[in-house]
Amino acid sequence: MFIAMNRFKVVKDATGEFEQVWLGRDSHLGEMEGFVEFHLLRGPEAEDHVLYASHTVWRSRADFEAWTRSEQFRKAHGRVPGTRPLYLGHPQFEGFETIQTVARSDAA
């Protein structure tokens, strides 16, 4: 498995607008081979921003890389018209290869 994360430092007074952009968008992720799941995470608050992360799980790094080259990716990442800058700087990408997975056992 491969986990792809982008971290966003969202301006404090823009958190509602940022969340609405994500909640209202058509991600096209479900159209992609190897896509497992997506999460939008809200994290800690700092003096000038709130930290958010988008978190996708893929069957493999190759599946994620195919997504980044796809027409679905271009459609999902098109600029939202009329929005002001919602976050500080550029998102910070982090990619992780899965080393170990521990799943809950319901056999108890």
From TrEMBL:
The keyword Oxidoreductase applies. InterPro entries: ABM_dom, Dimeric_a/b-barrel, Heme-degrading_MO. One of its GO terms (molecular function) is heme oxygenase (decyclizing) activity. Gene3D superfamilies: 3.30.70.100. SUPFAM superfamilies: Dimeric alpha+beta barrel. Coiled coil: none annotated. Its EC number is 1.14.14.18. Residues 2-96 form the ABM domain. The keyword Heme does not apply. Keywords: Oxidoreductase. This is Heme oxygenase (Staphylobilin-producing). It comes from Methylobacterium dankookense.
